[in-house]
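Design a sequence for this backbone.
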């Protein structure tokens, strides 16, 4: 019954971190962002069933503290994605030689992207009660605030009303795309940080593969192509396509980063190269991530590191 107690404790801690958002302070926002970490830690270090119990207990606690809708949102948006990714991370099967074959980190990254996109859509649907008109209006409100902070809206150099409206329309359409991009990065960092914490406590069942070794399967490229196609549709289907497109492009960009980490290992000037790359990403406000995404896609489709590098072929991996 140890996993029950740890699940209850993690659920209450995660619920508390979520509930403090009502304080509307910077510290409360930071604590709110950390809410999935307890669920990840108990799911990885004890049992994935602990994560399910944490989702249930935390959802009930939030429903009692805030509202039933908030409790549902906690379970669907915060706890269940953390549990699902932990469950996948601990999948394994005995290999022909008797050693355990663990779920590949490349496939795990693809699932992170898919989970991020679906979570963003679930959050939008729950908050609007499934009304796409309200969903679109929320996106336009966010887009309008963004445009007003980035462009001059008053004075002699102000944007014309028609130009501003067109920019708001474009950014509103891109809101699921950009939100899923950011959440993919956050989920990847959460899972990595939780795995490192559990590994330090010697409770992680699997040896965590070096991040530079990750390569997503070619099926991730097919998902991206399909997402780009359905992104042209209207309604929630189009929004889902935008979310999946943003999430998988970010995942490929993270793979591109991993590939550069991989190719520079053991080389002189590695620290300078990596530092310069991250500075450029920050200075260009993520524009460099587009090039990294293209590099990641090419790495998956053509196996660049296996063809032109010295790394051996990857070991057999789980097919699901």
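Sequence:
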């Amino acid at each position: 019954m140890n996993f029950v107690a740890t699940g209850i404790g993690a659920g209450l801690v995660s619920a508390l971190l979520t509930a403090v958002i009502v304080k509307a302070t910077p510290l409360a926002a930071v604590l709110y962002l950390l809410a999935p970490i307890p669920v990840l830690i108990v799911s990885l270090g004890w049992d994935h069933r602990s994560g399910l119990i944490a989702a249930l207990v935390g959802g009930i606690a939030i429903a009692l503290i805030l509202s039933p809708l908030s409790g549902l949102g906690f379970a669907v948006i915060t706890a269940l994605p953390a549990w699902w990714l932990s469950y996948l991370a601990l999948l394994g099967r005995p290999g022909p030689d008797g050693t355990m074959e663990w779920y590949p980190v490349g496939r795990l990254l693809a699932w992170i992207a898919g989970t991020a996109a679906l979570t963003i859509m679930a959050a939008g649907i729950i908050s609007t009660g499934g009304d796409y008109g309200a969903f679109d209006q929320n996106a336009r409100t966010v887009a309008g605030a963004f445009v007003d902070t980035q462009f001059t809206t008053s004075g002699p150099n102000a944007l014309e009303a028609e130009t501003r409206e067109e920019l708001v329309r474009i950014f509103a359409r891109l809101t699921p795309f950009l939100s899923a991009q950011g959440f993919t990065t956050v989920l990847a960092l959460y899972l990595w940080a939780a795995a490192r914490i559990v590994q330090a406590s010697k409770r992680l069942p699997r040896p965590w593969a070096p991040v530079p070794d990750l390569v997503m399967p070619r099926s991730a490229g097919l998902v991206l192509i399909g997402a780009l196609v359905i992104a042209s549709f209207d309604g929630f289907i189009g929004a889902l396509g935008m979310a999946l497109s943003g999430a998988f492009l970010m995942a490929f960009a993270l793979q591109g980063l991993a590939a550069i980490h991989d190719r520079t290992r053991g080389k002189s000037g590695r620290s300078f190269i990596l530092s310069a790359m991250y500075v450029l990403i920050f200075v260009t406000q993520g524009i460099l991530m587009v090039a990294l995404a293209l590099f990641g896609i090419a790495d998956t489709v053509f196996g660049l590191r296996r063809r032109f590098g010295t790394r051996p072929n990857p070991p057999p991996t789980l097919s699901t």
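Strands lie at 92-94, 100-102.
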